[in-house]
Each structure stands twice: as structure tokens, then as C-alpha cells.
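Thread: Modeling a multi-component assembly for a lab meeting

Hi all, long-time lurker, first post. My supervisor asked me to bring a structural picture of a complex we are working on to next week's group meeting, and I have zero experience with this. I have the sequence lines for every component (912 residues in total). Could someone generate the structure of the whole assembly? Inputs are pasted exactly as I received them:
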Amino acid sequence: MLSHERGVPSAAFSASRLKLYGVMLFGALLIALPIGTLVHLALADNSGAMAHVMGTVLPVAARETALLLAGVACLTAVFGTGAAWFVTAFEFPLRRFLAIALVLPLAMPTYIAAAVYVEWLDAAGPVQSFVRMIVGAKTAADFPLPSVRSLPGAIIIMSAVLYPYVYLATRTLFQMQSATLIEAARSLGAKTSRVFTRIALPLARPAIALGVSLSLLEALNDIGASEFLGVRTLTLSVMTTWLNRGSLEGAAALACAMLVAVVALIIIEMKARGDRRYTNSVKKPRLLAPKTLTGASAWGAFVFCMLPVMVGFVIPALFLGWQAVKRTARGQIDPMLMEAFVATIILAGVATLGIVLLARVIAAGHRLIATRWVHGLTRFASLGYAIPGTVLALGLLTPIAFMDNALANLWRSLTGERLGLFLTGSGLAIILAYHARFLGIAIGAIETGYARISPHLDDAARMLGRDIGGIRRDVHGPLIRPALGTAALLVFVDAMKELPATLLLRPLNVETLATLVYADAARGVFEAGALAALMIVLVGLGPIMLIARTHQPEPADGFAAARAASAGENGR
Amino acid sequence: MTQPSPCSLAAAALVTALLPTISIAAEVNVYTSREPALIKPALDAFAQSTGIKVNTVFIQNGLEERVKAEGANSPADLILTVDAAKLINAADLGLLQKPAAALPESAITPNLRDPQGRWSAITLRSRVVYASKERVKDNAITYEDLADPKWKGKICIRSGQHPYNISLIAAFIAHHGAEKTEAWLRGVKANLAKKPSGGDRDVAKDILAGVCDIGLGNTYYVGLMLKDKDPQQRAWGAAIKVMDTTFKGNGTHVNISGAGIAKDAPNKANAEKLLVFLLGDQAQSLLATLNDEYPVRAGVAAVQTEKLFGPLKPDSLALTDIAAQRKLASELVDKVGFDQ
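Re: Modeling a multi-component assembly
Sure thing. I ran the full set together rather than chain by chain. Output:
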């Protein structure tokens, strides 16, 4: 792999190299702005917020956070890896369908899943009411059942929508990397379970780590679902410090401390894993031939794979569909719905285009100028995903408003007219925020694509006199295209679901589907937003099916490695 | 740079699509932490009677930060919030200005408006005890009573850190001091049937299902359920009653929806017109009826709200005195481990 600069010819500061540096710095700047603002705020902190949190909530919040993350890690690892192993190594009823369906929960935002399960499973919901009717209990106090608003409830709900990160990463690995070894083991008479534990699982470890760390970042940064389900994570303390104790500085200090902890954990995990990474074959790898299961084991595999699809997608989607039909039939349709739909598509679409173009240059720079600080720059540009969305948006507010005011004042001095705030007013502020938040996902997806292009090709091109620009255009250009597609789809789905930055930075009279759902939930009538929620899910379905389909034989790991790279994973 | 053209094309398309319309027509820009659906009818009525176009953006958290960051060029004209604390915070940050137009101040009790005239309440929402019609005989209760051990295992509540609860606890501090409040919080905590979670409506549903007998919530959630087109929601609303809830020897804890004029309002005159309109008879009764709240103006009847929850006697504390105790309230909630 690339660990040093390879025979770079004379023009060490060629124009194309300068361009690469410039764009990479721009990408890093996008994330440096909010982080810099937060650090600046944190340094001014004299609220005593840190001491208060350490003294009161930390012991419990740290335990709750740790249990939540441990639970999500276990469930996503077991179901993600297990399902991936079943659909690649075996043949059983509906295997092909399940291989795609297992990706679907990605379209379901966590806060929506949480709200749906509370409606269904809470004490007053249909399930518990039915159980009470059966056993003849009059009230929930007479026949108490476990509450979905609890730590275990949160673990199950979050895992059910987050496991696809692990599934996609490990499935690709099983498909691509282990075929030869697994077949060798089989031919030597190893039992299926032994093949899994001794060969597949150790090989999958990096992929599991990537997928799990993405799920954990999502779970850690979540606010809506955690609060609703009564789980006190540290992220909630950041919010209460800001909103109830009136200290944005204290909140920034807490957020920075959490970011340091997260980055430290990621680095420790990477070091622990050492050099055990994907190795890239230049040749096209051979697919693993699935073994046919029969009888109970076939049904076991089917149920194991069907379960997460049901919990993470089918049940919540049915609930949304049912509510949407009920409300539509009564004529309760939000008049903003179509406008919100269009705004969602425009914002997510434009952001996706920009993010992918930027990420493409950064990933190329990372590949072609493999110095230490370019590596650092790339990882830094990917950091946005490791910060809670609301905190990131707050960090962006000041620098964006500063630029906006500078623009407005310039315009006024030139024309004497009032321009207003151009960046915020045009929606560009939201798009900048999406860049900061999702750039890492795109960089990761594209880097995974690069990892598949043999470095020997670069060497050959250099020998033949191509400079950096030439290699990118003539050699990488055609080969990297599928990875660009994956990156675009991933970013689009995430941008469409994005809530906190959209909420804080959007212009007057502009709503997205996510903000509509949120507004209804905020006044306590979540079902009123069912149609908008369903539209988020349906619009997300298209890209997700594309990811699942286009990567049947070819890497879906674009995806997981993608997000993982955002967390500083994925090596080089 | 590589292929800048699609990017710039897209940006250009976006800009034309979303460009802030150059203000030719009369308009007013409202930054609101209140959900748009709840104020839209009143804003529509304003637009219809004056011909002034109302633009809104709903920002629940971070509204003050955004206006502050936007500074002198901020398009914000009217800042409308649902928590007095946000308005007071905005005033403290210097984001509000006193309107030049005459507000019907004499008709609003002084504890519900800014002493310096920078903001005023528009509607009142009371935070009360919901109770099971079936299992609770009493019709009145005090906030102090909630710590009474007779309610052990019978109370439901959302997170103590939710702004609605913080406001109530801050009022408790303003009445009784920090020490007694801490003891009271520990008492309430000991009476909880389950760990705080969900929202006010979940509290009502928990009472209905029998998880608990009483719970804290804002009145209008009950009104919302009673008016819902879904029969199941109406059944939930009908199963609980709103108790006459007060501080001992005083009134009911209220929070407000309120508004103030932004300091750098580009359409200041229109913003003042809107604020005066919102305090006028038509909007006051419209908002009260629509959202099951109480009008802030003396002399405007809240016929429907009173029919549902009875007449309101608000606590006499000034909203500013309550807001001053919020930080302490939030710290106490953490200290007693209320949410844990």
C-alpha cells in the first residue's frame, strides 16, 4: 500500500499538485470552522459546567452511555455480521430478497423508529392493551410489562436501524476476500461453524470494527430518540448545559471533551488492530459459492435474517403507512408537504454534488500525495460525523453569519442597497453544513474505491510520464466512477434525513420533510407527520436499493468503509 | 479545480430557486420557536386584514443564537417564542427593542411582560396535574403535595430537564428557596411510577393505561386529544381530568407564548402592527380557542378553554423572577438524579 511518496517526477510543485492541496485545504477548512468556533467558545468557559456535570450526572450518564453503546455494539455486530454470513455462505428461502432487504432500515431515521415503537408498544399502545385484555388485567399497574421507554428499548430500537452499517461492511468482506480460504477450509472438512469462527470471523474483524464504530457514533450523537426513551446520554447533558443553564460555552467545552474521547477511542481501536486491514487484490476476486441449507437450519437462517428487517423497517413503515392513509382519508394533509419535498430534494441533491466533487479531490490527494500531513488533513476533513449534529450546526452558525454579514456589508457599500443575508437566505448555509457533516462519508466511500485500484497502475502511469493530473484523469477517472456513485447515494440519503443543521440554518418559509416531521413531534402529535416521515423513507429507498443492488458482487463496503473513514478508520 | 461546472451550475440553480425575494411588497419576518401550525391561523388573519405578507421560520433551539450571530443584517422582525426564558434571554442579549407603537399594556398584568417593555406575553399555558377520572377522587391539588408519600409509585412525568419542568421547578425555587425545592424534588422523585421519559401526552396515556394515577403536563395537550379527529385520541383525552393545581396559597404555574421586536428589524413598523394585532381581541380569542390556551389580555374571554379546564388564576410570580432561577433548577434536577 502507499506509505511514502512514490517516485514523484521533477515537477514537485506542479499546477495540478497545487490544485489538490488547495481543494484539500478548503475541505479541511469546512470542518475547521465549526470545530474552531467550538474550541474558542470552550476556552471562554467559566460556567463551571464541566465541574457540575462531572460531579452530578457523569457517573450515571457515563454508565448509561457505556451500556447503550455496548448494547448497540453487541446487537449490531451479531445481527450485522450474522446476517451477512448467512446471505453469502448459504442458500435458503428468500436469500436473494433478504440480501437486499437487510439494507432497508438505513432509510428509517432513528427518531422516527423510536416514536413509532412508543406508539405501538407503550402501556397505552395496542400491544400491551391486547395483552392486558387476554390476561384480564384492568390497568398496567396490575400487570406490569417491560417498557419500551427504557435502556433496553433504546438499545433494541437503535440497533434495529443501525445494524446495516455492519451488515454492508462484512457482507462485502465475506463476498470478496474470504472465498478462497473458506472454500479451502470446507474442502479440508471443516464444519460450518468452525469455518465461521476460525476463518470468517477473524477476517471480518476490521469490517465489523468499521461498521460498529459508525453505529456507535450515530447512537452517541442521537438526541431525539434518547431523550424520548428516557436514556440519559452525555450528549443530553451538552444540550441541558446550553438550553437550561444558559451556557453555550459550557456546552462547547463538554462537546469538545467528548470529541477528544471519541477520537482517542478510534485511535486506540486502530492501533489495537494494527496492520490487520483489507488487503487488495489486483485481480477481480472470486465469489463464494453458497452452500444450500435444508430443514430447520434453512428456516433458522431465514428467521435470523428476517427479524432485523421486520423490526428495523417493516413494522415502522407499516405504522407510518397506516397513519398516513388514515390522515389522508380525513383530508389532514400538510399544505407544505409538496414544497418540503421539493426543498428536500434540492438541498440534498446540490449538497451531494458538491460533497462528492470535493471528496473526490481530497481522496485523490490522499492517494497521490501520501505524506503524513496529507493523511492528517484527510482524516481531519472527515471528522464532522463524530460531532453531534446540533453542536456542529451551532459551531457553524457564527462563521457563516460572519461571512454573510461581510457579504451584505460589501454589497451595501458597492450598491447602497440592502442584500440581506445571502448564504442563510439562499439555503447555501445548510448546504455548507451538510458538507461539514457528511464530507467524511464521501471521502471514505471514494477511498475504498481507490483501494481497489492497484498502485502499480499509478507507478506505470508515472513511468510513462503522466503527472498527478494526468493519472487522475486518464487512469483513475474511469476506474473510480462506481465509488463516486456509492458516495453520492450515501450522502444523499443522509442529507435528506438531516435535522439539526437544517432546523437551525434554514431560510424563512423553507421546510424540509425532516423539519415537518419534527414540528409535528414537537407539539406532541407525531402521527400528524406520518406522511412526511413516510416520504423520507420512500425517497431514501431508491438510493438504498441502488447501493444494495449495484454492490451485489462489487463492494458495498464503499458504504461502511466510507463512514468508517469519516471516523478516521480505514487505513490507507 | 476538477469539473467545477456542474457544481457552479447547481449552485446557480439553487440560488435562483431560493434567493430571498427582494422586499418590494410589505412583509414581516417572524422567527418563532413555536410550531408554525399553532400560530398560522392568527398570522393568516393578520395577512388578510393588513395585506402584509408574513414569512416564518421555526427554530426551536438556537433561535437567540441565530439572531445574535446574524447581527445588524438579520431579517428577523418579530421574535416569537413559547418559553418566557427564551424571550428574557433574547432581551438580555440585547436582541430586542421596545416598540414605538402603543401596546395594550394596561390590560396585561405586569408580571407577564418585560418591565422595560421589550417583550410581552401573548397567551398563557398552565402546567397542571392530570389525573385519572376513575382512580382519583380529588379535583384540586398543590404542587407541594406532589412530594406527599401518599402518591408513592403513582406519578408520571417527562424529563425533569425539559424546559416546561425546569420552569415549574424554577418557580418552586422562587417561592420556597433552593433547600426546600431540593427536598421537594427528592420527594417527587421518590413518588415516580417510572423513570421520566416521553412527552406530556405520553404522561396522559400512561395514566389512561394505569401505569400511574397522576402526572404533570400542560393543559393544551388534553385539549388537543379531545379535539382530535381520531376517536382513540378523544378516548385518551376523555379518560383524564385536569386538576385545579396551584402553589399553596397562590396560583397556577403558567408559562407563556410571547413576542418582542428584533433590535435590527428591517420591517419594524410591520412587526409592531403584528404584535399589536396578536394582542388584539380577534387574535387573542382565536389563539386561545385554537390552542386551548388562555388569552393574556384581561377582558378577552377564553370560553372554550375555561369550559375544558376551568378559569385560570395564574401564580403571582414575575416571569423574570422565575427565569432567574432556571440555572439553579437545572442543577438541582441533576443533583437529585431526578431523571436517573
